[in-house]
Amino acid sequence: xxxxxxxxxxxxxxxxxxxxxxxxxxxxxxxxxxxxxxxxxxxxxxxxxxxxxxxxxxxxxxxxxxxxxxxxxxxxxxxxxxxxxxxxxxxxxxxxxxxxxxxxxxxxxxxxxxxxxxxxxxxxxxxxxxxxxxxxxxxxxxxxxxxxxxxxxxxx
Length: 156
Prior knowledge:
Blueprint: E1 4-8, H1 10-18, E2 23-26, E3 37-42, E4 48-61, H2 63-70, H3 78-84, E5 91-107, H4 108-114, E6 124-126, H5 129-137, E7 140-142, H6 145-155
């Protein structure tokens, strides 16, 4: 199964990596992605490959039905949810399982130096084999480990 690269705004990425956001909303999504790895590119102003997660489950239905499933998981209010899916007959939400952060996130400049044809996704895209192999070699930390590491480094 090909892993995905998702773009997230910094606010939502922070919620994912703090463990507060456990469902990611999408207007469109690849098929059959349960169990896939998803890597997170954080958009401007951060512009970094920050980490990722494994997709535990996908909800695909009308926005009204998906809202009932994820309203306590997506970390958005109902008005924001409705605005995001306005005019859409279908909504997708990904259950975020086993999230991790990279100890040393890659900047957009680093990504473009390493992968000459690197493209930031508008929403999502598949990773190339070369990107996936490289991203998997990066040191991962479980969600919450970074804050513990930061506290220990400040105390030293």
